Amino acid sequence: MEASEDVLAIADRLWRGEVSTSEIHPLRPSPGLAEVADGVAFVPSFANVSAVSTDDGLILVDTGSALMATDVHDILRRWSPGRLNTAVYSHGHIDHVFGVPVWAAESAAAGWPEPVVVAHEALPARFDRYILTAGYNGVINRRQFNIESLQWPTEYRYPDRTYRDRLDLTVGGTTAELHHAKGETDDHTWTWFPHARVLCCGDLFIWASPNAGNPQKVQRYPLEWADALRRMLALFDSPGGGPEVLLPGHGYPVIGEDRVRRALTDTAELLESLVEQTLALMNGGARLDEVIHTVKPPDRLMERPYLRPVYDEPEFIVRTVWRLYGGWWDGNPATLKPAPERTLALELADLAGGAGALADRALALIDAAGDGAGDAGPGRSDTEDDAMRLAGHLAELAWLAAPDDPGIRAARRTVFSRRADAASSTMAHGVFSWAARESGDEGPGGPS
Predict the structure, then answer these.
(1) In sequence order, what are the beta bridge partners of 199?
(2) Which residues lie below 8 Å from residue 249, measured CB to CB, with a gap of 6+?
(3) Helices (H), 327-405
């Protein structure tokens, strides 16, 4: 079918580097469907959905977001009339778990049994936490994705069946092996369909530098993530052969044994390198500041078209490693019990000759940084990157000291707009864009 060819053609072009993930972002795929193996369909969406046809209906790995659930259902209905027998949640993020109600309504109307939802045993606690922190999650996701209308949900379709380490499901004569992993979340499941040699890895591979450092979200597990990828690689030693198809939670399919092996290996090596470097510095007594500015990902891996920092960044993963093994304190004695940020800003502004002096210097630094292609990325030197970072500090201090001053608000808006334009990752772009909008001139709006 034409749509299948489109999906797989895009996947091939991305792999070859003929088009980049900054142009075809893994969170913004083109709609379509690809039959990637006999009886196995893949639907790219904000969170992808994989479907396996059995003699007793469909198995879905992930069900998509609430906004896209009906579209995904309609696309799959053109591929198969089978009822939804079982839905597997790869993890509990809301873009993966909100499609079941559409299928359940169809089953009720047709007199079919209710779909069964399967997930790791840690997933219900995630939903409980989401309900408890709905306001906070709304705030941080509006900031991350620049969606002002986003409202965090408080009702969830909990799983009917959970497992701890591994679960072998048989549906209509088809076996699915479910394996638990810690990675982006503590409730992750990767699913192996040995009959089709198809591996559904959830968000353990997403056509981007691993989302292991998201600055606004809870703890991630980089070393355990790498271990999960190594366990997937062990499938190549299985009697029936290893994966020929890798279906990610975001982005496009990876087709072919050699490509699947390379994608899994490279992602594991990137995570292992960042963890090893960070722990070596921590074990030597380094402060977080030194760690952040010393650890570097291997250049050869960052050149891979599927590991570019278009969503998360290796620098943020370093912070995750610190938080996991070292706690929240950064090693600076002044930050253990700090002064209020605004008190410090007022003191520094007074020493500098006023908040305006800080703002002027911030603008001078951001102008000196030029228009390179990203924070410490191609086209931007370390010196220019340092200037942009310093400009951010000074603009924020000026605003904290004089939040109602129109000139200072304008300077902060300029600095963080420029930082947003230069950012390569969704995470950095979202935060910097939010700061620029917060600096708007529609009346007072300083720090609370």
Answers:
(1) 192, 246
(2) 47, 48, 62, 90, 96, 201, 202, 203, 204, 205, 206
(3) 333-336, 341-352, 355-368, 382-401
In sequence order, what are the beta bridge partners of 202?
A: 248
Q: What is the pLDDT of residue 373?
A: 42
Q: What's CA 405's distance to the chain center, in Å?
A: 36
Q: Where in the chain is the domain with CATH 3.60.15.30?
A: 2-271
The pLDDT mean for the chain works out to 95
2-271 homologous superfamily: Metallo-beta-lactamase domain (3.60.15.30)
Integer distance in angstroms from the first to the last C-alpha of the chain? 56
Percent of the chain beyond pLDDT 90?
Answer: 92
- Residue length of the chain: 448
**For residue 251, what pLDDT is reported?**
97
Residues 6+ apart with CB under 8 A from 322: 278, 282, 288, 291, 330
Helices (H), 197-329: 222-233, 257-283, 288-294, 299-302, 314-326
Beta bridge partners of 49: 43
Per DSSP, the residues of 144-203 read HHT-TT----------SEEESSEEEEEETTEEEEEEEE-SSSSSEEEEEETTTTEEEEET
pTM over 0.85: yes
Cα(235)–Cα(192) distance, integer angstroms: 9
Q: Minimal CA–CA distance to 123: which of 187, 191, 201? A: 187
Gap between the Cα atoms of 46 and 44, Å rounded: 7
Q: Which of 203, 234, 213, 403 is nearest to 309 (CA)?
A: 213
Average pLDDT over residues 96-123: 98
pLDDT attached to residue 3: 46
Classify residue 95 by its DSSP letter.
T
Instruction: Work out the widest C-alpha separation in the chain, in whole angstroms.
Output: 77
| Mean pLDDT, range 59-71, rounded to an integer | 97
Q: How far apart are CA 267 and CA 260, in angstroms?
A: 11
Residue 350 is which amino acid?
Answer: D
Average pLDDT over residues 119-133: 98
Q: What does each C-alpha distance from 168 to 59, 60, 91, 201, 250 come to in angstroms?
A: 13, 15, 17, 16, 24
pLDDT in tens, 421-446: 999 999 999 999 999 999 985 434 45
pLDDT tens per residue across span 276-307: 999 999 999 999 999 999 999 999 999 999 99
CB-side neighbour CA atoms (13 Å) of 360: 7
Cβ proximity of 312 and 207 under 8 Å: no
Confidence grade of residue 381 (pLDDT, cut at 50, 70, 90): confident
